[in-house]
Amino acid sequence: MKKIAFISGATAGIGEAAAIKFAENNFDIIITGRRPDRLKALSESLKKKFKSSVITLNFDVRNFRVATAAINSLPEKWKKIDVLVNNAGLAAGFGTIDDGNPEDWEAMIDTNIKGLLYISKLIFPFMIKRKKGHIINIGSIAGKEVYLKGNVYCATKFAVDALTKAMRADLVQHNIKVTGICPGAAETEFSLVRYKGDKEKAKSVYDGFKPLSAGDIAEAIWFTASRPAHVTINDLVIMPTAQADTKNIIKKSK
Ligand code: NDP
Ligand code: 8X3
Description:
alpha/beta, binds 2-hydroxyethylsulfonic acid, single chain, globular, binds NADPH dihydro-nicotinamide-adenine-dinucleotide phosphate, Rossmann fold, two-stranded parallel ribbon
């Protein structure tokens, strides 16, 4: 059996690109997400292009009960997960905190923090048993600095940053590596989700500069996953060249 990567949120963007990258590098893949049609299409393409074995798990990471049933349903040999990429996440809404919608706050907190914890909690025992593993948490530049109107999304990514450090401290005794990958602006479905399907608004986020692509982040994820056994990359912050930080993006007008 080949090595196994478990990638949450692989139906789009960074998760999908990471699944392709690991398959390209001879891994078998477990992919998750809420859209079954997308999972099926990606699974078929990974099998065809890379001869990978693939398992799809269709569930919402916010629900610990269904996450438990899905992950525990994996055949024993598939529980030997070498790399977990905690990627599923979202921003919902963009506005000052006083105008915030509690439903959006809950979606972000439940997905980005609690979902990441649930998946990790279910996979820790598999890695601890084997005395090895690598957990790669997708944080954000938004987890390093807050920006205007980013409030709760930033708070969830600060939490991811804290959990990455905490997992590293608690799991080092089990020989488990923990890496944080923190991208700046990457053009995926992220802004479409943040702006609730408004394509014009979503597109305008990336006007006038070259954003990162999902593939750029997948390259970085793979770099950290392919270091020798004695090397851990703790933290990577990756920005488009036009973006210095959350407040400074150089945009050229058309
Ligand atoms: P996309 O919207 O393109 O992809 C998000 C993925 O997360 C989808 O596969 C989606 O699957 C999954 N997901 C979201 N909510 C849930 C849920 N409740 N249960 C299961 N899966 C879920 O965005 P990105 O690829 O850009 O985002 C991936 C990660 O990268 C996120 O954690 C995001 O915060 C982070 N990030 C993104 C940046 C960017 O600029 N794009 C920059 C920094 C970090 P489905 O809808 O099928 O459930
Ligand atoms: C996504 C990057 O800067 O839009 O995490 O919040 S940002």
